[in-house]
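Bug #77: duplicate submission created two jobs. Keeping one. Sequence:
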Amino acid sequence: MDVGAFVQENRRWLIGCAIGFVVYLIAGAVIRSIYDPSSAMSGLRAEVQRLPKELYGTSQRDDLYDEQEKLVAQRERLERTLAFKRGTEYQVTAGTDAGSFLFEAGRKLKTEIRDRADERNIDVGDSAVAWTVPTGVADIKRVLFGLELLDEAVERLFAAHDATKARDEDAVGLRSIMQLRAETEKRSSRPTYRQGGRDAVDLRDYVEQEKLSFKFEADAPTLTAFFEACRQSDRTLVVERVTMQQPERIGEPVVVTGVLTGIAFKKPETESEQ
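Kept job's structure:
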């Protein structure tokens, strides 16, 4: 299918993806503003208790409480839009060897993907399914989050293929998976809001975030179904980047590359202490 025609036919969906990505970009700024420890809103209730009563009356305190509630409501809206709530299947339990757990989980996932692809006559490259090699227990836990994203993405990709074939058995659907790679960040790469000093904010204290790079070949109905399925309540895969390659012949499937992001929100310490 011609990429130009695909864009014209799916203009509203593509605009939706763009809007979703903009929301994803501004979410980081909002999260940082909420959790900046130098902000008057961080730990507000504790600070209000220490305010001199002769300087701040009931009206001013109520205004500050109202502002905090607005910020909390904004965070909750972002969570509903962007959150990927972790399951238990890819989390190491106490007393379990993390390395062995990752090995078994990864082997099982690769086998399942290849078996399901073979059932559908979908080509999967020898090195298509991959993830970053971890160097410690903390890295293993992040890689397991990446595997959970990979598993979820494959589930929705196969579902999109099946739905397309159910509507039209002659449709191409998903032809091949060229890459599905969990791109785990290096631990040294710690995103902060303010560099240095005690006011530095490490966003890892408030969110877990991992990325999944992908490249696959599919027809337009399958692409549309897959990207629409990326947004699901509590299990959203944020479409961070998408590139479509022009097919050599009209009617051929489109090669799509891009990045998906999973964002798991942590409960703020200031709330859990109240």
